[in-house]
Records
---
Amino acid sequence: MSGDSRPAHVAFFALPGHGHVNPALGVAAELTRRGHRVTFATTDRFATAAAATGAVPLRYESTMDGLPAKDSAADRPDRFGSDDLARVLRDLLRETVAVLGPLDRAFAQDRPDLVVYDDPSGWAARLIAARRGIPVLPYRTTFAAGAGWSLATHRTDVDPSHPEIMRVFHAVTTLLDRLKVPLGPKELMTGSESGPALVCIPREFQFRGETFGEDFHFVGPCWSERRFDGEWSRPGDGSGERPLVLVSLGTIHNDDVGFFQACVDAFAGLPWDVVMAVGDRVDPGVLSGVPAHVQVRAHVPQLRVLREADLFVTHAGMGSVMESLFFGVPMVAIPQMSEQRANADRLVGLGLGVMLHRREVTAASLREAARAVLADSSYGDRVRDMRGHVRRAGGAPAAADVIESLLTASAQAHG
């Protein structure tokens, strides 16, 4: 522990998805290392990862855990629309109603000193904390939202008066009235736009980062080593003399066999080592013409591979983008949904890689994009500069410092 901070009980809550859980794991590990007691509310799928940090998993049944994407790549718009938001809000409301009871009982029996929740989707934790008067700290796994810039106002085409959105709005209003919490429905549904807040990117990557005050703590990626991800050995002769390319579409929109076949065809004749993580829904056996230097696996330890990689072909989920930048790896971004499109636009704008539209991916376009990034040293130069910003942001230790300062302030206020 730092300063005069005393041991405390900190509870984490995140939606059960890798992009939501992974950024919090490193912070939980750092807090337990400092002597704090950590509870991590999660599902069976992530309980082992939570326990590996030294936290005590608080298991709950989720309505969203492990659900694959329900739409095809062709159906996904590049900008978030009213129908998209209505669907997300319905899912979050259903999840919140399912989780409220178990979370409330757990907090009643073992009251945390602070609740750190996934914003803007951690409705249940925020509601129970408000109901019981427990201090909270939101963390953002993607861009921060504030008066000067937010995804909602700058990157969406949403009509707030859309009938389905209004239906969820009224249902949330009813829920808030029943719980008697001092929160408005819009504030809960859109997330916090004021600090203090943790943001898991460096300020330099944030759109209009200069407009956010000092109570927005841009701590960068807070990942832990994730030793449970398994082992990996480099394909080819293992010498490291050939460029190494990692390919992954993440864990949700990763069932596009045509994309992975295009990658095989693009890289088969090149003197590179290639590692492809295709997920659980693509059978590697259906891919044809896979040469020895292209390794195809359901999952790979991404951090381990990125330590050696020269290029990352990625869906541009923010977690993957930050991990790539941490290790100084330029990217070919192929976003699969609107939020990832915003991430890809930002990395392209900063000169950290190039982007291909998912509907325009061919073996030829992939090969050309990958060659362009690897051949142009300016991409590597800019990525190394951003790597410095990412690492100076402080990661999990910086996030833990913020948490300890809030714990100290809360103790003094009630002391």
Note: The CA atoms of residues 172 and 403 lie 29 Å apart.
---
Amino acid sequence: MDGEMENTSNNVVEINSDTEKNDSNSEKPIIKLFKSLVTNDSKQNTVLTNAQIIDILNKEFDIKLSELHELEGEIYLTIMKKYLKDWPQWDEFDTIINNLKSKNKMEEMENIFESKYISLKSYLKTMLDIAENLAKPTIQAFINKQQMKEKDKTGTPESVVVLEIQASRNQLNQLIFRHPNAKLENTIFNPEFLLPTQIQLTTFPIEAILNWWGVSITIISNTNVSIYKREMQHELKHVLVNKKLKEHSNPFKFLDQDIKVASFKRTQIIEIDELIKKIDMKAKCSKDYEIYNFIKKDLKMLPSTIPSRMTLKRYTNKYPYVRYLYKEDESELASELSSNKFDLQLEETISPCYHINVVPIKDEMNMNLTINCEPCSLQFTGLNLIVDLKAHFDAEHFNEPDWKCINCNKTFSMVNLAKNWWCHRC
């Protein structure tokens, strides 16, 4: 553990440490951070997401970003990312803790955690107070200026520009430069795509994987008939916004969570309870019982009877989620921060939903399970289905920015949203 923190993107602070384990017993996020740096002997990276930094701001400093102007929230996040990694006592902390750890002096380590907790919290509090004194008048002036522009608006309809871009899911997350890149002829598009280097702290829960976008679950009979198919078909909307211009608000939208019929063919009726019993029998004798249990949970949300070969659609939350995607150009960061013209961000709105199609199951023992990851064009089946599926997601899909509910403005990591079926209570 060398105590060095590195901000690798706008969404994480990366701490070079010798752990990846988090102590959930402590209520203080900073104490959790300290413990996570010393509880493992292998050299690892601890990644703090925006959601975790927001948790520190909330619990340690009573700063609730959801109640602040978005620009003020961005300032607090930037301050925390910078000064968490620049705390002058990291080297001293590193030396003392490694010495105590080698001697297995756990009680003394706890005392160091408490003393350094006070020091780091005081250090961060000082920086946050300075930021608050500078930020509030600047933000108020910004709001007043926007309000004046709205009053002077002539009523001329704004032109709408539709931009069509082909990009992979991971490329889209860092496609837009936050400011025109002077080294690349002032383009706003990032021509390079680098795979993330952070180490994922926890593995994906199976429910998160099965609720990920582009993932489909298919049960195929021995006669090659698809007897169950569930496809995550989240509805996405992208708008390129410049936050230096007038305040952009995502239009409010209410999502009806009732089951909707997407297509229908008149045929026999399926009793859902009978179908669940057959799936349950298969689950009891299969290595893939976690997926079959997920399917049972999914089926229980359907009406008690449905026509066979009906395609059903369901939104999983009352409200869409929104997030802002962009790429910081570190070499130009100083000049960008002084710019008064550009703050380009790709606004991504998701209305989480899935489609499901079911036909009668004649022989519950003769089922073949297949999982497809459409964004990666990969299919998983066979004896190692779950192992291979989790390994793929842990390696390729962890670097996703957080989402915010457009109704309550609470922030969630994508893994937690997917694990909870993209649903939360406002």
Note: Residues 286 and 292 are 9 Å apart (CA to CA).
---
Amino acid sequence: MNKAQKKKEERTKLFEDVYSGIIPERVPIGAKLTLEATLEYSNISVGKTLWNMDSEEISNAIHKVCEMIPTDTCTVGGIVKTPHHFKILGSKGYYMSKTGYMQHADVETLYANEYKAFIQSPYDFIVEKCLPRNFKNLEGSGAKQSLVVSKALKAYYDHSAKWQSIIGSINQEYGYFTQPAGSATLCQSSFDFIGDFLRSVKGIYMDVRKQPEMIIEACEAMMPMQVKRGLPNNPHKLGHVFMPLHLGTYLRRKDFEKLYWPSFSKFINIMAEHGQTASLFCEHDWMRYLDLLQELPENTRILFEYGDPKEIKEKLGKRHILSGLYPITYLKTATKQQCIDKAKELIDIMAPGGKYVFDFDKSAMSLDTINIENFTAVIEYVAENTKYHNAGQLVNDSSGNNSIKLDTSVEPFSADLYTDWSTIPKNDIETQLASDVNNSLQQYEELLFKMIFAIV
């Protein structure tokens, strides 16, 4: 076993223990820099690199920070959006800013009077109505649309494959913990998806006042599609469905409980029943919802942006796996020793009893938001000073099963514009080879399905 393999084994054991209710040898570290911040550290143009995806240049920039910062998962990560497919599609929602960063505009593609049509078949409505409204090059004839989608699909997967190749090589060289192949997905809550990508933020908050029942019906109608998005090919306790939670904290408590929580909690329970853990990024301040978070399936992974660490630990620390809360902006304004002291203060609260992964309250989106020397000093402190004296022991019981049993029944996903190849008529030889034929053809349907929810 070489050095990298040994490191990977050690790091994987840290996360495996935490996720299995065992005190790990030390606190695992999940902090990351974005690719954009990494490129800036090496004085490489962000915009030019996102366009040319120069593998050697990107790899060199990533190596530079990986050599310096001793994280347990790859030091560079997050959602990498390249501009190629968005440009081909004529995107109104995503565009590259003057800094080279990809930006998301608030675009309305589901109109206030269209909920009933959306509820009939959310996927068909998204493909037929929302995509052409969001992408100007999908307007017009079917022939033109087909050509544009074909080019966009090729561009999306070409650059996704290039990024995966780069990061896969880095993971192998440095021995980082990685989730098992096919065990990680991304899915927004239904309310967030409607607000962020269909109705617009302004539109959905208007609907909260004027037609809340339509939101409830739409969130429930989306459930088969959402479950399909969230369940990976290979559910695994080391994998997850990552969910950035965006709009819930801007609702009144009674509206949150009525409009946001039911479909959200149902989805997470469905994932848990299939062996897929939810990894939540609770954006903004979720303190008034801690009692609801207690009801989620045990060992849900929750990264908090803001909040009181003591109260969060007290209410959720025996039940869920906690992370976040270290203000990343502190790295820019404080001295190195102050940053280390801040980490020690947080760890003293959050680490006892296990079920804790160190991370900042958000990723470093750009280099000007942090002092990278302070970032490095904090990670080094955590890596060297958070060993547990009782490693290997079982974590204290979470005081019984606090989950409220929900109705997790959900219809199988189907849509007119989604082909289930197992239902398509076959000739004699195709019937004899039905399993191979179905699998071979279905993979292309899944590629398109996945891309649609990466661009919508």
Note: Residues 313 and 350 are 6 Å apart (CA to CA).
---
Amino acid sequence: MYNILVVEDSGVVRKVLGKLLGGMPDFKYVMCCDYAEAKAHLETDEQFFAAIVDLNLPDAPSGEAVELTLQHKVPTVVLTGNFDESLRTNLLDKGVIDYITKDSRLAYNQVVNLLDRLRKNLAIKVLVVEDSVTSSAYICSLLRKLQFQVLTAVDGVEAIEVMEAESDIKLMIADHKMPRMDGCELVKNLRLDRRFQETVLIGLSSSGDGILSAKFIKSGANDFLKKPFYHEEFICRIFQNLESQEMLEQIRQAANMDALTNIYNRRYLFDRGEEMFFESQETTVAMMDIDNFKNVNDTLGHKAGDQLLQQFASILTKHFGNDLVGRYGGEEFAIISNRDQTTFCVDMARFMTEVRNRVFTEFDLNVTCSVGVCTTHKPSLSEMLDTADSHLYRAKHSGKDCIELCA
């Protein structure tokens, strides 16, 4: 849970923020109605993830509460009823994350959504590619204030090295003019690599060339920013691009997952499995199903059958988390692996032992499973699946609760 400090003298505003923050499962909040109360909380051992602070309080009418939270290094969002351009600029320069006016109810949602975005940012790595030390330091400071994990590179060549070493980088911001490899060439190179197809790439330049933004986009960038940029523009572009990418990932994930068991579905098994098949000459394919599953549905009902499938899938992912695991259909599951085949078969034996020793569903069922395995590389993945399936059929007709292996 993340503690949020709210410093606000208006009871109505505190009530609205309390309701919105209370609806966020990752947040809990501390409400303060004045500077003194906020100071008392900040001087304890309580750790605050962020603060929402009003500028004008009865005992701090000139923004002193904002100075207080910044002194305690708490990321601060100003929520105020008055918009003052010079004050806004001054506070942003001091390190405030954002300056939001209470001009409508949407403002309160904006504040809470911003805090949730900061929470998500904790797990996101960003690469800044910039040869100017000054510019790089400024961009990095903004990103760290937004709670990102920040990495740096001085040109495109170094950026590729960093991307290959840190495969979980989700966002890259690259300047155009750099030695060895410029920003556009860097973006082109990354987009040619399947590993970086989903990375958010944003171009950056102080050049007056109006066509440069189009060059970046055509090279594969998601967006382009011209230096110098406004604080809010930087935040909005970064957040909007990340949220769009996350939404696409959620849609894609939903399309690839089996809704009941929350493992991959048959379509994704074939799509990703084909890629794995061509990546290795030692692909292993296993097909399995739960023995006597129809009896569970017929005697205990489909609810019990669904619970059994869910729990069985959970054990599968526990033992084969580094492989491609999916529901093939009904009570039948498939595993596609490029790991060492001997190790895979040892893991399969351990998996079957755990299944035998577990009880499933609220009815404490004892179940077993039958498995067919194909370790011989064939002309296509489809043929390997068919071979594993035929061996599964043999296992079922050999007494069940056993493995039939095609070496």
Note: The chain has three domains: 2-117, 123-255, 266-406.
